[in-house]
Amino acid sequence: MPSFGIMTAPMQVDYQDILRVWQEADVIPEIEHAWLFDHLMPIGGSPDGPAYEGWTLLSALAAQTRRLRLGLLVTSNRFRPPAMLAKIAATVDVVSGGRLDFGIGAGSRPDHPPARREYDAHGLPFHDFAHSVGSLAEACTVIRRLWTETEPFDFDGAYVQLTDAFCNPKPAQRPCPPILIGGRSSATLRVVAEHADLWNIPGGDIDDVVRRSALLDRYCAEIGRDPASIARSIHLPVSYDQPRMTREAITEAVAAGFQHIVLGLSAPYPANVARWVADELVTASV
């Protein structure tokens, strides 16, 4: 059976509205996970509107929910040094009582201007795509090591250098939180094959999604990994006015082998939207 979750992009919306939706979902068994995104400025709507920092908000929501698995879809590896990110994520996992799914990706596409501007606005470097993918692979390596190794270690990579690296406390989950990597490029899929427990891709063109999934299967085979060991996750936007369209997209995705469904909710969120998702989308689709 597929698992279903919701995603509330934390932009152009108030904190109390997101909290309301997450707390509603927390008591609805049909909704098993909930997600935020990781942008420092809005990527839709007014460019000067509110956008909350993802990990800070996630920690607050973790403290005020009890059941939902939770994460960012997905953390930009460009925003935070990986050892710092490992510490942040371990803290959230402890706060949540071991409910974190650790989502990470290479970072925003350079051809997406609303996302591109947040780097200059925050004094963050924006490297080329090869750098972003190479540094993602090293980040996944050191983050997992920080979560699991019991002694400090050095790491001298092409992109990441650490001296006496150590993470304490460890995450609540053992050996560590599941790692979800988001993306569709061939280079990113090679990182997925090596490091991920789950792989997420945006929906829309189901034929492209299927081709990407088959490519991931091939990359797994090349390194001797069972492709079935990586759960397939897809993000599907929700239409409040035309739920049938969303149900059809869910049916297509499940038929294509995607068992982890993230339903993107747009703001403003209707009253009782989590219950509506469970009744109109989840129950009606399975």
UniProtKB/TrEMBL annotation:
GO biological process: alkanesulfonate catabolic process
GO molecular function terms attached to this record: alkanesulfonate monooxygenase activity
Luciferase-like domain segment(s): 31-257
InterPro entries: Luciferase-like_dom (IPR011251), Luciferase-like_sf (IPR036661), SsuD_RutA_monooxygenase (IPR050172)
Keywords: Flavoprotein, FMN, Monooxygenase, Oxidoreductase
Pfam family, one: Bac_luciferase
The protein, known as: LLM class flavin-dependent oxidoreductase
Organism: Nonomuraea turkmeniaca
